[in-house]
Write a structure and sequence with these properties.
This protein is α+β, with helices and mostly antiparallel strands and 87 residues long. Strands 2-1-3 form a three-stranded antiparallel β-sheet, with no helix packed on it. Strands 4-5 form a two-stranded antiparallel ribbon.
Length: 87
């Protein structure tokens, strides 16, 4: 189930306590804190990915040496409307 983050809305309109909830994808977002009943709203964030699919892991997985070893060619534009193989 996806983890969703919510923030409690204080009476003065500012943000209060953050809390998280595991909800099924088809479930609606909370409008009230499930325990205290205070008004809340969902915090929209970028999804988090594990380090297995992080930027560093992906750079290593598609390094030029590894791609050349498995048969891919690296091409660069030659400025004349064509391409030149560089590896």
């Amino acid at each position: 189930m996806p983890l969703r983050r919510f923030v409690v809305l204080l009476p003065d309109g500012s943000d209060g306590e953050l809390f998280e909830a595991d909800l099924p994808p088809e479930a609606p977002d909370f409008t009230r804190h499930p325990v205290t009943g205070e008004p809340c709203r969902r915090v929209i964030e970028a999804p988090t990915l594990t380090t297995r699919f992080g930027e560093g892991a992906m750079k290593q997985a598609v390094s030029e040496d590894k791609l050349a070893r498995v048969g891919f060619r690296k091409l660069e534009k030659n400025g004349e409307g064509g391409w030149t193989q560089t590896n």
